[in-house]
Design brief:
heterodimer, A: 669 residues, alpha/beta, Rossmann fold, five-stranded parallel sheet, B: 190 residues
Chain lengths: 669, 190
């Protein structure tokens, strides 16, 4: 510590190349900083974040016996950790560091012809940072142990891959899925581009693996009910929806066999409903499985349509697998980290009235096409026109159906990223299966950006698919033949076209799955402007989120195809395993502290706290408030409210904030 | 910039240099269109939804997408001297469906305004100005219509300026306020 306990502040300015130095005068600010109270040293460098830049901080602490560091550079969300490490290396407590953001909040927004104004504003920013730095205190972060278990929410291909990776790394993993089976969208697809692998064939081995991996606990037909806690110590309450059927494990626990998937129950069930797995194009019973390859192979009762006739109970007989009185349960799981992989669904494309989906029988969308062309689908793989069951001879594929669409309504401004490729694949599939068929692909741009994708485009063109470069303006139905007239402009010929087709497939835009927003909010994850979940950094942290311990995989973060989804899932699994393998995590010491001498025990703060971190307690015969530090996120709600000023927000104390305001209002040239 | 003349005007025309060069663009034209049309005309990505929706396109050489492109490139002369500019029926189908939320119809209207300032306008449009100036109607009533109205039990003239001729004064005042009639007469006289 310095003599007389006077603060000794060092100020460092970063040029950030010309990002900062190109818009304001670094030298003026350096000279100005020297005139500020407690500043004993000021310096500048091209890139303060570089090794020599950080070295300047380390050396200056020793040379000038500094007690506080101010760096005027970019945003703290980028380099605060960097400079804290440098401060620590110099021998100071890392929280003796304060940052002034003169890039995002100054040079970048005052770029052209505002040199003097930007310089003057930067002086204000530095003055305020110095005022706070003079009052900074040593803080010691707390380490908390990490629960050695992870959860994956959503069991499509992304969630399955993430769970398998985590489990194979030796981590107990709960794989949560709201439908009765794992598999997700990929299990609905017939083939995958560009390799034309059978989708089910490559996915089912992984589905089987998650079912029997000793470290994976499969929680199908479960939903996230509520989330408490923080990284390392989440407490997740799930809603175990009443399935009406006991699994073999559940059966064994009460001395019965449980469901063996024989299907006798579905055969006798008198209630018929559309099967959502087949996009409603095939029937299922009130007691059902989606398809033959479900994991786990356990039937499920749709209690919304079950008439409780007991026929299934009778036929199940001694296995006693069916319980029509089953109720929802709410088990709680303790986990260290979580991966969200909640996937996507199609936009309600019928709201684009000009394309006639749901108005014209022979207009279908991409997922319906997948089921119709799939050998295990409702037609046994024979593509038919819904209006008459005939085999279509001319089929249109409408790309960008709601994607890249800025108009008000259901359209999405983003590219859905996989529709070009699956439409090319669809064209290939019909040419393979139907003699003499003519596919017409209506496109704006063919985005075939992945490995072997452009080559696939070449192949489909060579096979004879017709490409018309024009976005479809509208579709009209011939009421007699139910044929469709597709209108657009062939923009390359500059000629309007009217093409009569037997069947039209809309490559509909995608959006976050229904309910993804609810899960997102429960885990405190933000959404980006386009509605998908927000990653911590689009380039450098694409799997993380701004909530520590919560990671993202697959389309829930933005449209991506299967290879990209699997890659991100593996990345997310790796990231989610790090805190668990480390065994403990450091928490930011920004929690509230109760100054018990000042606390009147009124308890108003306890109701305000959004994290249930505060409670009243008796100490020395007095009622005072007590903070559970691990639960406190340092939001400051209580500190700002407390009528007695009895709550101190560490690193954001009233004195520090008032000093900054004073410095702004009273200081300056 | 024909490389060589063959003393044959038709052949010279066919062989003339048609390169687009940066100097052909007038950025002021695009700016003007943006201000006049009040729609983000510069955001067109040439998908063809407009032409595909256009009732005029299959029956004429009018391609609204081409005008949108000329705007983006600032090809003022090419846009304003093309007689197709006047084939838009202003039905607004393109504006309804444009995925970039542009109103191409308003771009056409802006171009027509700019063309008129350069005295580029088809005669029939000027005749319409005269008709409105004289009767208040672009398509005035005629005897066949009057007989039809009478058969239907209606007054022979509709309750518009045809009946209330005293309002013609106000209509003429509006038209004269921007010298529309005077300009129409001048151009027709030339």
């Amino acid at each position: 510590m310095a003599e007389n306990n006077q603060p000794r502040i060092g100020v460092f300015l970063c040029h950030c190349g010309t990002n900062i130095a190109g818009s304001l005068s670094i030298n003026d600010i350096i000279e100005y900083a020297k005139t500020l109270p407690y500043v004993v040293h000021s310096d500048e460098y091209q890139y303060m974040c570089s090794t020599p830049g950080q070295g300047k901080i380390v050396e200056a602490i020793a040379e000038h016996n500094l007690t506080g560091i101010v760096v005027a550079a970019c945003t703290p969300s980028l380099h605060e950790p960097t400079f804290r490490v440098a401060t620590k290396e110099g021998g100071l407590n890392p929280f003796r560091f304060e940052m002034a953001n003169i890039r995002e909040q100054n040079s970048w927004v005052h770029m052209h012809g505002m040199w003097d104004e930007a310089t003057s504003k930067a002086k204000d920013q530095v003055r305020m940072a110095v005022a706070k730095a003079a009052l900074l205190e040593d803080l010691i972060p707390k380490s908390v142990p990490v629960e050695p278990a992870a959860m994956v929410v959503g069991a499509g291909v992304g969630g399955i891959q993430a769970a398998l990776d985590l489990a194979s790394a030796g981590i107990k993993t709960y794989l949560v899925e709201r439908t009765p089976t794992v598999g997700g969208r990929m299990s609905q697809l017939d083939k995958t581009f560009p390799t034309l692998d059978c989708s089910q064939c490559i996915l089912t081995p992984k589905m089987v693996d998650v079912g029997r991996h000793p470290n994976i606990e499969l929680l199908t037909y479960h939903e996230v009910e509520s989330v408490e806690g923080y990284i390392g110590n989440f407490e997740v309450t799930l809603k175990k929806k009443a399935r009406g059927v006991l699994s073999p494990e559940e059966g064994r626990a009460i001395g019965v066999d449980g469901c063996n998937g024989c299907g006798d129950c579905a055969e006798v069930c008198p209630v018929i409903k559309p099967n959502p797995f087949e996009m409603g194009m095939a029937p299922r019973k009130a007691i059902y499985i989606y398809h033959a390859q479900v994991m786990p192979l356990i039937f499920t009762i749709d209690f919304d349509s079950c008439v409780k006739c007991n026929l299934c109970v009778d036929i199940c007989g001694t296995k006693k697998a069916i319980d029509l009185e089953m109720k929802d349960e709410f088990p709680v799981y303790k986990i260290g980290t979580v991966i969200l992989a909640t996937g996507f669904e199609l936009i309600p494309i019928e709201e684009k009235k000009e394309w006639g989906y749901k108005r014209y029988e022979n207009v279908i969308h991409g997922l319906e096409f997948e089921r119709l062309i799939c050998a295990s689908g409702p037609t046994g793989g024979h593509l038919i026109r819904p209006s008459d069951g005939a085999t279509p001879k001319r089929v249109g594929f409408v790309l960008c159906a709601g994607s890249r669409d800025n108009a008000p309504g259901i359209g999405k401004p983003y590219c859905s990223r996989f529709c070009c490729m699956y439409s090319l694949k669809h064209a290939h599939q019909i040419m393979e299966k139907i003699e003499g068929v003519e596919p017409y692909i209506f496109y704006m741009d063919i985005r075939s950006f992945g490995k072997m994708y452009e080559e696939f485009y070449y192949r489909i063109q060579n096979e004879g698919a017709k490409f018309i470069r024009g976005r479809v303006a509208n579709i009209l139905e011939d009421p007699k033949t139910k044929n469709l007239h597709v209108f657009t402009e062939d923009t390359l010929l500059g000629r309007p076209v009217d093409i009569e087709l037997d069947l039209v497939v809309l490559a509909s835009a995608v959006k976050p799955n229904d309910g993804a927003d609810v899960v997102r909010k429960k885990f405190g994850v933000s959404a980006s402007q386009d509605g998908w979940m927000l990653e911590a950094h689009p380039k450098l942290n694409p799997c993380g989120t701004t909530t520590a311990g919560v990671f993202l995989a697959g389309v829930c973060q933005g449209p991506k195809d299967i290879p990209d989804t699997v890659a991100q899932a593996e990345g997310a699994a790796s990231a989610a395993s790090i805190p668990i393998h480390c065994g403990e995590v450091e928490l930011e010491p920004y929690f509230a502290i109760c100054l018990e001498d000042l606390c009147a025990g009124c308890g108003m703060c306890t109701n305000l706290c959004p994290y249930s971190a505060l409670a009243l307690t008796i100490k020395n015969d007095r009622m005072v408030m007590e903070v559970t530090e691990a639960k406190c996120k340092g939001c400051g709600t209580c500190g700002g409210f407390c009528p007695g000023g009895a709550i101190k927000m560490q690193h954001f104390t009233s004195q520090q904030i008032v000093a900054q305001i004073d410095a702004y209002l009273l200081g300056g040239e | 910039m024909a490389a060589k003349s063959y003393d044959n005007p038709e052949l010279d025309q066919k062989l003339k240099d048609t390169y687009y060069r940066l100097g052909d663009s007038n950025p002021e034209f695009s700016k003007n269109i943006l201000e006049t049309s009040r729609t983000l005309a510069n955001m067109c990505y040439q998908c063809g939804t407009c032409t595909g929706s256009c009732p005029s396109a299959p029956r004429s050489s009018y391609r609204i997408r081409k005008f949108m492109r000329r705007n983006v490139f600032g090809l003022e002369d090419e846009a304003l001297t093309d007689p197709d500019l006047w084939l838009c029926t202003t039905c607004y189908s393109c504006s309804d469906r444009c995925p970039r939320d542009i109103a191409p119809t308003d771009v056409i209207m802006a171009m027509r305004n700019m063309a008129f300032k350069r005295d580029i306008i088809p005669k029939n449009f000027l005749m319409t100005v005269k008709l409105i100036y004289d009767s208040g109607h672009g398509v005035p009533n005629n005897d066949a219509n009057r007989d039809a109205r009478a058969r239907l039990g209606l007054d022979r003239d509709p309750p518009t300026t045809h009946t209330y001729t005293e309002y013609m004064q106000g209509i003429r005042k509006i038209i004269d306020s921007c010298d529309l009639k005077a300009n129409a007469d001048r151009i027709l006289g030339e």
